[in-house]
Amino acid sequence: MIRVVIADDEAPAREKLERWVAEQSDMTVVGSAEDGLSTAQCIEQFRPNVAFLDVQMPTLSGLQVVAQLEPSSAPLIVFVTAFDEHAVKAFDLNAVDYLLKPYDLDRFTRTVQRIRERLHAHESGATAVAIGRARTPACERLLVPDGERLQLIDAASVEWLEADDNYVHVHTAARTYLLRRTLQDLLSQLGEQRFVRIHKSTAVNLGSIGSLTPLFKGDYEIHLHNGRVLRLSRRYRETLFARMGQ
Amino acid sequence: MECLSLQAWLHSGVMNMPSRLPSAVVHTDYGATFPPKTLATLWALWAAFWLLMITVSIEDQLRDPLTRWWEPVLSEGSSALVSTGWMWLAVRVRGRYARYLDKPLAWFGSYLRWLPLVFITWITAVYAIRHGVYATVGRTYAHPGWGFVVVYESLKLTYFTGLWLGILFGIDSYGQWQLQWRRLLQTQKALAEAQLAQLQGQLRPHFLFNALNTVSALMHTDVARADRLVAALGDLLRISLRSNEHEMTPLAEELRTLELYANIMLERFRDRVTLGWQIDQALLDIPVPALLLQPLLENVFKHGVEPTVAHVRIIVSVRRDSGSLEIVIGNSGCMLASEHRDGVGFRNCRERLGIIYGNTASLLVRNEGDGVAARVLIPLMDTIQ
What is the reported pTM? Predict the structure, then answer.
């Protein structure tokens, strides 16, 4: 069975999709959401194969939801929108599919056909995630797990990131969140503006750096405003200095 | 696409924008274009002046018993005739000199440089006529020596030329001022019309597509409701397309339009929104600008309903507030951010109110209670006692 999540903030639009998806013999709707945050939660919880996402939704837009997903495990994404046709067309048609409201059963059936082919070829939603990230302004907000729920935190409030196998500890002044993501992927999501890598397993928010103390062999100690001391490996030294000099 | 008006969108390539845009109106060719009335005024003054001169001259000369009645008439008449010739020429060329009207010295200079020629021709022609007429009746025209005549008449001519050029200058300046004032008013009117046309078409394609999708969803569950929605959408489109011609509409009509829009939006966002009406029925006939309220309700949905998952209550209220009609569209559950700046919708409404009512109408958006209220005040002109 193809597991489907549907997200739209307008009930009639949601019901139309639910009805048509349910009519497909090989598809089942595992979850519906009416805003961005609960959509992300739905995807996290139900691990669907496909997500039909409205672009304009409360809390997080469809694009922002996608930008927060972990690429390799992301579901195939179909954007459903009445929004700017040109913006949607700018998506690589081979990467994501889209439905322009209002759409008819023929158009929907073609989308479903495409989904079957992609799933058969074991494609993931990775390209959709890349597009989502490229099309949302360098992530201002980060979706983090908070117990059973997901929560949005301000990217600026993150002081530093610490890799731990396939997880990343996200350190803010208040607390630390554990994300099932790689550091590389998280940095690509957060953009190059704010965070810079200082070690194989560490990245730091440029704004939280207080001072630098040189050590032997070209390594440095980085003192954060909050008093924590991190190690700057000489491999990443030039990049950091270049960024700090900007 | 998003920011195009519905009308521009529906008519793109079919209907052109009104071409009466002001760019061509602000030119400043002074040319020979004066309001016709100013010329009539000038000639009336001229005729009155010479009638007075002739009358005074007759009365003066008739005290002398040796003088015939026609002698003063001839004297002043010949002067009037030749002077009128020169005046006619001055009026003919005033179009050419009009561009100097804002530089009086240059304007007077361009006329006064002809003064020597005026002296010679005027004295020659006038004295020729007088001598000729006297000779035909077998008499001699007696006058002081030519040296005195030339100096005396030149002085007199300078004096009167100065006087009449002053009058001509005054009349032409006034004419120019009138003309430019009229052009300015036309420019402003054209500008206001162009702005109005632009500000109206308030329905966005985005709204249309979503509404159509709602219809397409409803068709599978409730055909009658889908049908009603299509009809409402049709009515709304019709009103939006028509409203260019009917800039003002009775409040009842405007509220009906608002209800059409609200019905579609309530269907889209059902379970998330409720809408209440508090209308003073006595005010329903008052004319208001067409499609003024719909953008305000659109804003409530855009900023109060769409970004939130909470249930929102919208209230539309119409009442009399001393000398004004007060229309409030308010919603619960969502406050303006402190750094809030009015969006296009509000700015457009405010501009329209300004164009129609000057500064006697107002639109205020602010936090009230646990939500936001947009308050429109329109002066009740007809009912002010």
Answer: 0.61
